[in-house]
Design goal:
With 233 residues, this protein is of the alpha+beta class. The chain has 6 helices and 7 strands; from the N terminus they run E-E-H-H-E-H-H-E-H-E-E-E-H. A 3-stranded mixed sheet has the order 4-3-7, covered by helices on one side. It is elongated.
Length: 233
């Protein structure tokens, strides 16, 4: 029997076909990445039927220097190495993400965006709030009610999406070193605050008891003086 291969240091065992993203999280390769997509095989090969090529363009946010775990705990800024790495990626300015697909005339633009994998933020979905606005031919249109127009043959429909519609990456792991240390830190300062308030409360209690004892002594002295005066009379 062959010995079991231990998982790699600093993380979980990686499943076959899995890869790590920018956050270091293990992500399993999906079927589209295994089989290829539009860029590899073309529109017809992946089942996209239409006469109008649509291109969604979106400026991506600049790379932000990452802070290590200990720098987050100590509330310090990113290291010089992280700043240099971010500057190297941002040297050419914001990157433009382009997603291509095919559409037919009068097809809802929201369906085309979902078909291309373009992130669009919606709210009312009635064309009233303007949350889902994108720019086509210099005009802002609302994706939830807009439809693909008829354009000349050989041309493409360029849809410009606002930078603020970029999808936010969320960590899929429930437990991490950062969450553990943050929880420990919160509990520690909570206990410090508890004992500080308890110490202040004890001192206030002692001061109140001392004031009550002084008041009792004054009352007793008055009563004694009053009793002595009555005896003399």
């Amino acid at each position: 029997m062959l010995p079991r291969r231990p998982p790699p240091r600093g993380g979980r065992a990686r499943a076959p076909g899995a890869r790590c993203d920018d956050e270091g999280l293990v992500k399993k390769e999906d079927s589209s990445e295994k089989e290829g997509g539009v860029e590899d095989k073309g529109f017809e090969a992946v089942g996209l039927v239409g006469t109008i090529p649509v291109v969604f363009q979106q400026n991506m946010k600049l790379k932000v220097p990452k802070k290590s775990l200990w720098r987050k705990i100590l509330k310090r800024g990113p290291s010089k190495k992280a700043i240099a790495a971010a500057d190297a990626e941002n040297v050419d300015g914001p990157k433009v993400q382009k997603l291509k697909t095919m559409a037919i005339v009068n097809q809802p633009l929201s369906e085309v965006a979902a078909q291309a994998g373009q992130m669009i933020k919606y709210k009312c979905k009635k064309g009233e709030c303007g949350t889902c606005e994108v720019r086509i031919d210099g005009q802002w249109v609302r994706t939830c009610v807009a439809k693909v127009p008829n354009i000349e043959e050989g041309k493409q429909l360029d849809v410009f999406v606002r930078e603020s519609m970029a999808e936010i990456k969320m960590s899929s792991s429930f437990f991490s070193r950062s969450s553990f240390i943050s929880g420990f830190q919160n509990n520690f300062w909570g206990m410090v605050g508890f004992f500080t308030q308890a110490f202040k409360g004890k001192k206030n209690f002692e001061d109140r008891i001392s004031a009550e004892d002084e008041l009792k002594a004054k009352v007793a002295a008055r009563k004694a003086a009053k009793a002595a005066a009555e005896k003399k009379n």
